[in-house]
Amino acid sequence: MAAETAGGYIVHHLTNLTFGKHPVEGWTFAYPRGFDPAVHSHDMQYTMTGKMASEMGFMAIHVDTMLWSIGLGALFVFFFAKAAKYATSGVPGGLQNFVELIIEFVDTNIKDTFSGKSTLIGPLSLTIFCWVFLMNLMDLVPVDLVPNIAYALGIEYMKIVPTTDVNATLGMAIGVFCLIIFYSIKQKGLGGFVGELTLQPFGKWMIPFNLLLEGVGLLAKPVSLSLRLFGNLYAGELIFILIALMPFWIQFTLSVPWAIFHILVIVLQAFIFMMLTIVYLAMAHEHH
């Protein structure tokens, strides 16, 4: 799977396995019918793949993002369900200790930040933290390992870090945004929610200006949630790819310190996404 140029190598590793409805080809993966990677050049394939993916428009799915994100979510559910099934009030096992530690950590942050009453905030925060952490953790897998395995199986592209795909991070952020709108209306009523957007901070005589300020602030929440997570993980993945282009002895010298530092980024970004979700939902529950 070695690319002919450094640019081709980088583009290959940052390209998603895309499936969608092409205006000409119909439902297909993002390369033309009859295209043989063994015959055509890699650079030509990158060009046609990117062009076809853009032509698919909204009717396109990043298959690798869906595969890894759903798989990691199922892995989270499996281990936590297993810990709950075998939980004991006696001497706990290692898995139970680990799960209880995470739950206590999340619960402490909720108590310190969220003053309202909700049966959703606990499970939601726990799911966000663990799911985003697992997706971020895939960034520590060697950049060539899974793509090489996929290529041997006939799959040209395979990105394994879902949070380096803005579609995944924006999708999670939009889900949080919908909850913000729902709880804002539920707690304050439709009139109270509209009043927050139109009457603050400058009173009823400045309604258009208030709506502009509050509307921008409201819409900035999902954008900031998604782009912060995406930007940090995408940059980290890109640095790993650039290190992989260097000679072996330089790779080892640079990749180990960067991986150690990146562990902090992985945990921190999962924590920030969780905390901002808690803060935004806490604001949705507050009455002015």
Task: Please tell me about this protein's structure.
The protein is mostly helical. It has two domains: 53 residues, no CATH class; 223 residues, no CATH class. The chain contains nine helices and three strands; from the N terminus they run αββαβααααααα. It has a three-stranded antiparallel β-sheet. Strand 1 and strand 2 form a beta hairpin. Helix 4 crosses helix 5 and helix 7 runs parallel beside helix 9. The mean pLDDT is 86.
What share of the residues lie within helices? 55-70%
Number of strands: 3
What's the pLDDT, averaged over the residues? 86
Number of helices: 9
Shape: globular
Strand content: under 5%
Q: What does the main sheet amount to?
A: 3 strands, antiparallel
Low-confidence parts, pLDDT < 50 over ≥5 residues?
none
Query: Order of strands in the sheet with the most strands?
Result: 2-1-3
Number of domains: 2
Radius of gyration: 23 Å
Helix-strand makeup class? mainly alpha
Give the helix/strand layout:
Elements: H1 6-13, E1 18-22, E2 26-29, H2 42-56, E3 60-62, H3 63-85, H4 94-113, H5 121-137, H6 145-152, H7 166-199, H8 207-244, H9 248-285
Helix pairs in contact: 3-5, 4-5, 5-9, 7-8, 7-9, 8-9
